[in-house]
Amino acid sequence: MPDNRADVVVVGGGTAGIVAAKTAASFGVLVVLIERERTGGDCLWTGCVPSKALLAAASVAATVRTASRFGIDTEPPRVDFARVMQHVHSAIAQIAPIDSPEALTAAGVHVISGDAVFTGPNTVAVGARTLEFGQAIVTTGARPTVPAVDGIDAVDYLTSDTLWDLTALPERLLIVGAGSVGCEMAQAFSRLGSEVTLVGRSATILPREHPEASSILTQGLTDEGVRVLTSTAVVRIDDGSAITDTGVELAFDRVLIATGRTPRTASLGLDSAGVSLDDNGFVRVDEHLRTTNPHIWAAGDLTGHPQFTHTAGVHGSLASSNAALGLNRTVSTTGTPRVTFTDPEIASAGVDVRTARSRGLRLQTLDHRHVDRAVTEGATNGSTTLVLDAKRRIVGACVVGPRAGETIGELITAIEQGLRTRDLASATHPYPTYNDGPWNAAIADVKAQLSSPVISRATAALAKGRSLWIRKERDNRQ
Description:
Elements: E1 5-11, H1 15-26, E2 31-35, H2 41-45, H3 48-65, H4 81-95, H5 101-106, E3 109-113, E4 116-120, E5 123-126, E6 129-138, E7 142-144, E8 172-176, H6 180-192, E9 195-199, H7 211-223, E10 227-229, E11 234-238, E12 241-244, E13 249-251, E14 254-257, E15 261-263, E16 296-298, H8 309-325, E17 338-340, E18 345-350, H9 353-359, E19 362-367, H10 372-376, E20 383-388, E21 394-401, H11 404-417, H12 421-425, H13 436-450, H14 453-477
Parallel strand pairs: 1-2, 1-6, 2-3, 6-16, 8-9, 8-14, 9-10
Antiparallel strand pairs: 4-5, 5-6, 7-15, 11-12, 12-13, 17-18, 18-21, 19-20, 20-21
Helix pairs in contact: 1-8, 3-4, 3-6
């Protein structure tokens, strides 16, 4: 850098920060990205990449273990956990160069290593160096939340940050928190050979999801040997045992805390920059992702928007475009998807089923016993549910089944574009695929409309008119 001034300073080198920095640099402005540890963020190092690599290994073990249902007999799988973790770290290593400082530099971004602290409305310090900026984008993400449980400070607990340092498979694993992370890791470690107990405060696991979807996954986890405790809280924990609010004692060798994430905003000096936080520590942003300082923007997990990598990336691009070009693009959360990568996968977008029921919206559900691809793979314990408004537009969806994360993509487009079930039903889909779920659900809704009283009366009137015309033509010929 020629001096200590930048057009755009990005604080944080995770997904939102990387996308924001590269986007701004592509516009030809001078961009500085400040990262205190390593670029790539939670997704690369402790989130999406390692967790999906672990799930892939666990899926292979489960396939071998259940191969007899297809008429294929095998020996029980022997899991070498050290080699499993080698696979996990190999996946990280293959993807890391894409998010590296070298890749950012090649894209025209100046990368500075260190802790960033805002010292004024247009200045940020990195160690002894102070940078003046025209615009800044804060993308420091979030960290695992550790609940205030009696005795937890004396326990060597795991979080999604430290889980990947394991070198030996825990014989007994207690997981506190039954959201997506808790459920994914419960299934993965159970399939790899751990005795797993999953504890959640809510009445169901994945409390945000379709109740029937949560029920299907609960049954699946239970069938695989996971002990699932809902409406339960851990109130005391010691080295090797935990006590719940129902008085149940749970023995464990390791405990994983998966109870949500807290924004990383405490040490950034945001007060000095005139950036306000809400009561939970999230940065307050408007619909354009601008903070209470008109020169500072925020994107990613620290904003209170859905904490997903795909959301962080899209919002990083949006904030950067607004900051660098003076645009007023607004955030859209209409079809924001979320996926829990268990078996079966659970994918949702738009208005969720619980909200739909409270609003009186129509639900069109197709059981996957009627999806031929699911039948061929012996994976019929799933469903597709479309949420429809009064005009039969698709405003939400939930898919439960293999590759639901891929299937939901078509429905996200439908939600964002305001498509109706007749639009989806009229598009030819390849057979047999899991996309038959959304397609056939849409067809079923179109058929329901055709059999409605209004349509039936109209059809009857047309039929009557046609009969009269036929009789008249016959009489004329005679």
